[in-house]
Amino acid sequence: MYVEAFLDMKSANWLKAHIHAFDYFGGVTETLVPDNLKTGVIKAQREESILNEAYRELADHYRTVIVPSRVRKPKDKPTAEGSVGYASRQIIAALRNAQCFHITELNQYIFEKLEEINTTDFQKRPGSRKKVFEEEEKSTLQQLPQTRFKMMEWKTAKVQLNYHIQVERMYYSVPYEYVRESVDIRLTTDLIEVYFKEARIASHKRLKGEIGQFSTKVDHMPDHHRSYLEHNPENNVKWAAAMGPSTEKYVAYILENNVEKKALNILSTLQNIARKFTTEELEQAITTLLEISTTPSNTVLKGILERKKKSLKTQESAAKTQPASTESHGFTRGASYFGRDKK
């Protein structure tokens, strides 16, 4: 017999009780017949009850079959019911005057009493519970898996408009396409996994400590959010270096002479300007800007680029309207044209 006290009957403790019992017995039965309680069973049915996901995974890990007893049918597991009654009389009653300030302390008392019960000889048959188990029952158990079952729990959540789900007052991102969808969440001690229609769509290390923390992955963001996140001083410096030395110098000036938020706004405008011109045009214009101004700005730069653009258009128009040259396109008339060779 195995007995352990828990503070509640929530899923985590329900699973932990099974794991501790399996470890105590050193094996697993082929079939488990638990009570038909909500912690382990989603829906009780006459033919086959529907187990919750965490309980089903525990059964799969230990290679056992879970067959919950029928509702209000204690005769489905009379031996277990008898053991519960015996434990109540022998253990709970014996500890009624004990003072415990922690669950660990309470269980220490229980385990001491449990060992006494299991090793005490029967009154009407030879041996003890422990001896009968070791000689007759233990050999029928299946071996424990090489790895212990990793504690986990399943929850459901709705993806918020900011493409995050809330789990125990912490926030985890999922791909933004799943906004407003209901998802299933698998929680282990150190991992959060998110599933949509049985397909895993996200995973995060579990956040611990101060509540309200966010775990956000860049590839879960929509494009405009990702662009905003990537718009930082380091990436702007890299972009400027790729454009040319004058652009690099101008970007460094902007970052050095403005607070970061304002500098990033100025650099965002600069990159918008850059999209309308070639790299060579931008670099030449910034070179001019730095030569003529001690306080260079995007406004002056834009004026330089626009004037250059206008100048090029004027030159192109002039080239198109220039008169044709007589040397290359005219006609040379000989004397015979004017009748001088007439007789």
List keywords for this structure.
4-stranded antiparallel sheet; 11 strands; single chain; 3-stranded mixed sheet; alpha+beta; 343 residues; Nucleotidyltransferase, domain 5; rod-shaped
What does this structure look like?
The chain has 343 residues and is of the alpha+beta class. It folds into three domains: 11-140, Nucleotidyltransferase, domain 5, CATH 3.30.420; 152-221, no CATH class; 231-318, no CATH class. Helices cover 45% and strands 13% of the residues. It has helices spanning 11-25, 53-62, 78-92, 103-119, 129-137, 223-230, 233-243, 245-256, 260-274, 279-292, 298-321, 326-329, and strands at residues 31-32, 41-43, 50-51, 65-66, 152-158, 164-167, 170-173, 182-188, 191-196, 199-205, 214-215. The strands form four sheets. A four-stranded antiparallel β-sheet has the order 5-8-9-10, with no helix packed on it. A hairpin with a 2-residue loop joins strand 9 (191-196) and strand 10. Helix 3 packs across helix 4, helix 7 packs antiparallel against helix 8 and helix 8 packs across helix 10.
Q: How is the topology of this model organized?
A:
Blueprint: H1 11-25, E1 31-32, E2 41-43, E3 50-51, H2 53-62, E4 65-66, H3 78-92, H4 103-119, H5 129-137, E5 152-158, E6 164-167, E7 170-173, E8 182-188, E9 191-196, E10 199-205, E11 214-215, H6 223-230, H7 233-243, H8 245-256, H9 260-274, H10 279-292, H11 298-321, H12 326-329
Parallel strand pairs: 1-4, 7-11
Antiparallel strand pairs: 2-3, 5-8, 6-7, 8-9, 9-10
Helix pairs in contact: 3-4, 7-8, 8-9, 8-10, 10-11
